[in-house]
Every structure is written in C-alpha cells, then in structure tokens.
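Technical note accompanying the year-one report. For the benefit of new consortium partners, we illustrate the data format agreed upon in the data management plan: each record pairs a sequence with a structure-token string. No post-processing was applied to the example shown here.
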Amino acid sequence: MKAMSNKIEFSVDAESKEPIVRVRDAETGDVIRQIPTEEALEISKALDRVQGLLLRQTA
C-alpha cells in the first residue's frame, strides 16, 4: 500500500491579499485541495469590483 505523501503550501493572493492554503501531491505537484477555491477567489474579486462601482456612483 502506498503511503500518502502530501505537502501543505501557504501563500497570499497578490490581488486580494487573501491567505491561500493548498494541499499538493508531493510526487506530482498536483493540487489536491485549495482553500479558498479558485472560484471563490474570483467571486470575491468580482464582488469587490462591483462594490467599487457602487461606491463611485453614490459619491
């Protein structure tokens, strides 16, 4: 039976400054899991852009 060999990687998204945690397969380097997901980061960025538009319109 193959032993699990995973790496945990911590980083910060350059644009949103959100912390990101990735679990990678140590052998292949493939991302097994990411928190928050890429989709969640994109949604957060889109909401920030919309919020910025709304603030500029009301100011």
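Partners are asked to follow this layout when depositing records. The chain has one domain: 6-58.
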